[in-house]
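User: Show me a protein chain along with its predicted structure.
Assistant: Here is one chain, sequence first, then structure tokens.
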Amino acid sequence: MGIKERRTKILLSLFLLTDVSFTPINFNERVQKVFDVTFNQKTRGTLSGIMKEGLIEKFPATGGTGIKEGNPEQDPSQINNQYRLTEKGFLELCFQFPFFRFLKETWDGKWRVISYEIPEKKRELRDRLRREMQGWGLGPWHRSFWLTPHPVLDHLKDLVSQKEEEQYIQAFQADHTFGDKEILIEKVWTKSALDKRYRELFKKWHDILSGKEEKTEKLKKVVTEYVDILKEDPGLPKELLGEQWIGFEGFNIFKEIRSILLS
């Protein structure tokens, strides 16, 4: 599904299967197949670790309403426990998939501007910082200036505090005073190109659903295609995009498909 890290797969599966309700979910055979997570010792260790961090919670299977299909004899631990995303886990996920944030939270109307000019001889630092900031919904405003509506500055402070790259970074929080926001959004995030990508996604979903594969395999493909675009969507709020933005439509369509394929 285009994601290698087991930790991310687990957090993402808990959100995409329940969205903002954070309902407990069984990691049964079906869920494992859709999200490409094998319930082995490494997965159990990852679950244990992120529970200790407070990113997920565990519940007895009888107390939840998660997906319970699959082979109960495959692994008793899949049936005896369910897992749900916590608020802390959701926030961590938002730093990788910013689209999720404003499905649950309200934008505070503030813009964050981040500037960094790390010398070429420090390329390793620059590349590492860019990787860390990749999912923050940042868009290139001008050379060395990046813009985002997401509340990322405290996270940035924690990330670079007492580190070498701290000396090369300036960050600001501001209101938008005047100017055409539509022009700004197109310049910084190329909204029209993202719109096109969503339309292509809908065609791919249609082709998948029209196929003859069984439901679990179809859902796996639907999720894989969706994750590819979620990694690129900056997650701008409805105050900037409008209620009818195609990305919000895509999320609603995904929920409908999910409901059909899990029935």
